[in-house]
Amino acid sequence: REVTEKLEEVVMIWTKQIRQVLVESEQIRREADDVGPSAELEHWKSRMSSFNSLLDEIKSSRVKKIISILQAARSKTLQQWKELDRRITIAANEAKDNVRYLYTLDKFFGPLAHASPVMMEHIPSLMNTVFMIYCTSPYYNTSEHMTSLFLKITNQMINTCKTYLCEG
Asked: In the record, which residues are listed under signal peptide (predicted)?
């Protein structure tokens, strides 16, 4: 009984820490007004790395042993733990999926940043790729994500035009 209580305390500490990570990941991002689309890819790569590390820790043998002991003791803390495990898995899958889709846009980011203002040749392919992401991604096809991406693409186009005008 005493061992079970100690292990429940440990799991409750982990639960609190994981909840904090989830809350922070769901907060609105603060970014510079002129940030380009490569920042979107970097954000999701960072998030993927964080959640994959957290998943690796949750799936470690040490954690599995503690959880199996609590399962045998029919601990009530496991309900919360299972819910957090599910949420972490979803967040990791979302980040991985978004990185995979955003990498399809990566080939456009360089030309978009370094082209002359006559960048029209890149726009149709870029928009087709964005459309493909919108149609096929199970996570990235939200209004919020698409708006953020289009804002960053537009910012990059404006920055490219500014650079062209100042150097020309």
From this structure: none
